[in-house]
Design goal:
about 35% helix; Rossmann fold; ATP binding; about 25% strand; four-stranded antiparallel sheet; six-stranded mixed sheet; binds adenosine-5'-triphosphate; single chain; about 260 residues; alpha/beta; nodulation; nucleotide-binding; P-loop_NTPase; 2 domains; ABC transporter ATP-binding protein
Length: about 260
């Protein structure tokens, strides 16, 4: 059973979703990558964005992070419109991209401090925050090591720590476990679930690996640029009448079945 966030003091804007996407479409030339996509990531939820290759997951992340401009629909981060209030929206957002983006020649700590500086966090406060997060994650002993000398799983954990340096309330992770072995994958999922439970942060976890999703999670199924289903893990199972999420997922992305229907 997935842990739920413990009671947190209600903050201004409590009840506002960490992420709200409404009616968003995006095309690359004639190819439609996203078609009228709407979804929510409630604060304090682990929401899996489940979709096969080419579903549109990375395109959606690129729109939320403003790499691409959303010309249709609206995207709000903690109530701030990413188009009209980009500074407010992006300052509350942490991102772990699919491609690795740490500087391999810098130490773990220097990578974190560099990111802190970009967010206007002073050296002392940045160092304190970095060491605190590394300790929470059990990798404080690697702070002075060059990133080049870490394993793939440790690099990913450092990237998550980096994404948390400025205390975001929404964390986006784009297929973060790609290339990791089973144990590292499980450790990474556990690290992020702990954040949801302890800090009430909203998480959008893009993946095509069904085993990463568990009871208590929210699931959004994306396929060929469209949301095929959204709800709790349990609701998706009940809807499909299946015993496991794999069967439910295969039904939802079955184009042949859809065409026949
Ligand atoms: N820059 C681009 N130019 C043209 N087409 C693109 C571009 N980026 C993505 N696409 C297309 O948009 C669709 C969605 O791609 P996207 O990368 O968002 O999917 P994804 O769900 O992240 O896939 P994956 O799991 O393989 O990373 C695909 O058909 C892809 O080929």
């Amino acid at each position: 059973m997935t842990a739920r966030p413990r009671d947190l003091p209600s903050a201004p804007g409590a009840g506002v979703p960490a992420l709200a996407v409404s009616g968003v479409s995006h095309a690359f030339g004639v190819r439609k990558a996203l078609d009228d996509v709407s979804l929510d990531v409630p604060a304090g939820s682990f929401t899996a964005l489940l979709g096969p290759n080419g579903a549109g997951k990375t395109t959606l992340f690129s729109l939320v992070t403003r790499l691409y401009d959303n010309r249709s629909g609206a995207i709000h981060v903690l109530g701030s419109d990413v188009r009209r209030q980009p500074a407010a929206a992006l300052s509350r957002l942490g991102v772990v991209f699919q491609a690795r983006t740490l500087d391999l020649e810098l130490t773990v700590l220097d990578n974190l401090l560099y990111h802190a500086t970009l967010h206007g966090i002073g050296f002392r406060a940045g160092r304190h925050r970095a060491l605190e997060l590394l300790a929470q994650d059990g990798i404080a002993d690697r702070a002075s090591d060059k990133v080049r000398n870490l394993s793939g799983g440790q690099m990913r954990r450092v990237e998550i720590v980096r994404a948390l340096m400025h205390r975001p309330r929404l964390l986006l992770l784009d297929e973060p476990t790609v290339g990791l072995d089973i144990a590292s994958r499980a450790a990474l999922v556990a690290q992020v679930r702990a954040l949801v439970a302890q800090e009430g942060i909203g998480v959008l976890w893009a993946t095509h690996i069904i085993e990463e999703i568990g009871p208590g999670d929210r699931v959004v199924v994306l396929h060929r640029g469209r949301v095929r289903a959204e709800g709790s893990y349990e609701e998706l199972l009940a809807r499909s009448g299946g015993e496991d999420l794999s069967a439910a997922f295969l039904q939802l992305v079955d184009d042949a079945g859809e065409a026949a229907a």
